[in-house]
# Entry
Amino acid sequence: MPGLQAIAVGFDGSADSEVALAWAAGLAHREGGRLVVVHAVGLLEHAGMSHHVAAHQETAVRIAGEAGMDPDDVVWSPVDGDPCSALLRTIGQPPVVDLVVVGSRGAGAHGGSVLGSTSLELTERSPVPVVIVPTGAHR
# Structure
């Protein structure tokens, strides 16, 4: 996929989102593009009940760095709302990213699901290609 300028990746701190982030960061690094790490901010975080946001940001920057990304090319983007809506708003109209990457399941994963609700909804609504990194994939 030559010419990728920006890749958005959903990140919620889950193991699947870490693998998706590493995959997206590796591709962004090879393409010389920017990586936009989207973290959906929910009600608990707004209520000050979650101390995990800063830890998620540190983890995301570390994983991107391990993939070779320059920190200046990694954008941490906390966005209000559910994960799918946050990613769709980040993509924008017209799109400001060329590709969106998610893990197959996130922090709210249901054990019987093959794909999570976010990845399924994104495949139906995204104006840009969506890559779903499978559960159990290695960095």
User: Anything to note?
Assistant: The mean pLDDT is 86. The first strand starts at residue 6 and ends at 10.
